Each structure stands twice: as C-alpha cells, then as structure tokens.
C-alpha cells in the first residue's frame, strides 16, 4: 500500500470511529460538574466528547467495540494530549519538558480541568498561548511520585492574551512585597511569615489604578485564581476565595513557608487522587 492509500485508509478509520461515537457530540452528564468533583466515568465521557468535537487530540484515538461502547480510554486510564488544547497552544516552560509534542499521562479528570482552563482563558482573555511547567512533570522532577507524575496537576507559568503577555515570575513573583502588607526591607515575604496577601492588590478606593490593574497583571492573576477555585482542589476554610489564604492552589503569595519559594514562577493546581 502506497502513502496515498495508507492516508486514505487512515481517514476512513478515523471517520468510522467518529461515526461510532456520534452520541458523544452532545455534552454528556458531567459537563455541569466541577472538575474536582467529577467521577471517573463522567470524566471519561467528557474526554471522548472533547475528542469527537476536536477540542483535544490524543496520542491515540478512542476505541469502541461493535456496539459502540468505549473500550479505550477506560475511566481509570490516563491519556497523553497533543499540545493544542481547545484552540490554545500549550508551550512547555520547563527544561525537562523542552521539545515535547504532547503531555505525559494525565488523569482524565485533570484533562477536563485543563480543557476548561484553556477555554476560560481563550473566551475571557483572548488567550492564544499558555506556558506550562507540569503536565506529567513538575518542579524539575522527572521521577518519584507526586501529583504531577501521577497526572493529577498542572503548573501554569503564564499566557499570551489579547491584553498582553502575562508571566507569573516577571509580573508577580519578582514584584516587591509592599512593607504595608508585611514585606521586609528587600521587598520579600519574611521567610517565616505565614500571613500573606496578594502583593499586586490595588486599593479599591483608588479608582484610576483599579481600572488599569483590572486589565493588567493584577487583574489577570486575580481572575485566574478565582476561576481555578471553581474547578481545582481548593480546601479553603474561608467563605470567599482570597489570594493568600491556605489553599490547594499554590502561587507566589502562598502562605506556607515551605512551598512559597518553589512557586514563585507559577500557579500549581490539581484534582484530588481517587481510588
């Protein structure tokens, strides 16, 4: 079989699989469930739904039996995603992931969270590029169990949007912590402090600065945090989400001293492990 014949055969197989999965064109039941609360079955159906609607591309196509029942991925399977997700280009910002053309194996609930995150930034900020450091890998680690290597987490380093290029390290982590909110003489959080707040926050009574900050880095990172609290594992004990609270979402102003320095350049967010 020549190259042309092989390509035709491949197209036919692709069309046949899509035809078998037509019932997944419509949004399945889990579409209204937040990512952290999805069952494995709901997440699997959503992943197939995304594939059928060309929201994601995976390392392999879904597989069905003769009755159209999905045999791969199964609810407990993990998948690798190609790096155009929901129309947004995902570029690795981690030397250990440089040159990757797809993620490592991801929990299906994490796939849903990542897709929704990309869709949110595209729809609300005109994002075309997302810089990431942890989809199957994180913090420079290449071995040993953690939520990244288990496919449960993502590190978000920044994005190219219609409002500009936002970089967590440059536009947040490297900015001074004002003395008025607890910064030391070097503009850093004291190493022992466990009381932090959002260093980029603007006085709500300063209307001129408030308008500017809403469309800039202060507003962008605040909006990202607030969105993540709707999807990712949060574990906050506070009634209203707030940057600086104790949260499963980590960032440059996280209050936990042993985690703060390691998250100077990114947000970390995840879904919880389930059996």
What share of the residues does DSSP label as strand, in percent? 5-15%
Number of strands: 10
Order of helices and strands: HHEEEEEEHEEEHHHHE
Percent of residues in helices comes to: 25-40%
Instruction: Please state the overall shape, judged from the principal axes of the Cα atoms.
Output: elongated
Give the class from helix and strand content and strand pairing: alpha+beta
SS element count, helices:
7
As residue ranges, the low-confidence spans are none
Distance between the termini: 46 Å
- Total domain modules: 1
How does this model look, in words?
There is one protein chain. By secondary structure, this protein is of the alpha+beta class. The protein has one domain. The protein is built from seven helices and ten strands. The strands form three sheets. Strands 4, 5, 7, 8, 9 and 10 form a six-stranded mixed beta sheet that branches. The chain has a two-stranded antiparallel sheet with strand order 1-2. A two-stranded antiparallel ribbon has the order 3-6. Strand 4 (84-85) and strand 5 form a beta hairpin. Helix 2 (40-52) crosses helix 3 (108-125) and helix 3 runs antiparallel to helix 6 (217-228). The protein is elongated. The mean pLDDT is 90.
């Amino acid at each position: 079989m020549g190259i042309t014949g092989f390509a035709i055969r491949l197209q036919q197989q692709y069309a046949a699989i899509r035809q078998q999965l037509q019932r997944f064109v419509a949004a399945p039941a889990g579409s209204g469930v937040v990512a952290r609360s999805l069952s494995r079955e709901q997440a699997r159906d959503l992943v197939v739904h995304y594939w059928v609607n060309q929201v994601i591309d995976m390392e392999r196509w879904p597989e069905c039996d003769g009755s159209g029942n999905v045999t791969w991925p199964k609810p407990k399977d993990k998948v690798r995603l190609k790096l155009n997700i929901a129309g947004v280009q995902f570029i690795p910002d981690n030397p250990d992931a440089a040159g990757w053309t797809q993620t490592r194996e991801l929990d299906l609930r994490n796939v849903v969270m990542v897709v929704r995150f990309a869709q949110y930034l595209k729809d609300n900020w005109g994002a075309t590029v997302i810089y990431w450091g942890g989809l199957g890998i994180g913090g420079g680690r290449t071995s040993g169990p953690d939520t990244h290597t288990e496919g449960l987490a993502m590190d978000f380093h920044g994005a190219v949007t219609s409002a500009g290029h936002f970089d967590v390290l440059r536009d947040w982590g490297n900015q001074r912590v004002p003395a008025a909110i607890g910064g030391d003489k070097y503009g850093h959080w004291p190493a022992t402090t466990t009381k932090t707040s959002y260093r980029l926050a603007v006085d709500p009574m300063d209307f001129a600065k408030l308008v500017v900050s809403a469309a800039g880095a202060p507003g962008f990172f605040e909006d990202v945090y607030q969105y993540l609290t709707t999807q990712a594992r949060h574990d906050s004990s506070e009634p209203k989400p707030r940057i600086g609270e104790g949260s499963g979402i980590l960032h440059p102003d996280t209050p936990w001293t042993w985690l703060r320095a390691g998250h100077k350049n990114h947000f970390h967010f995840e879904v919880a492990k389930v059996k």
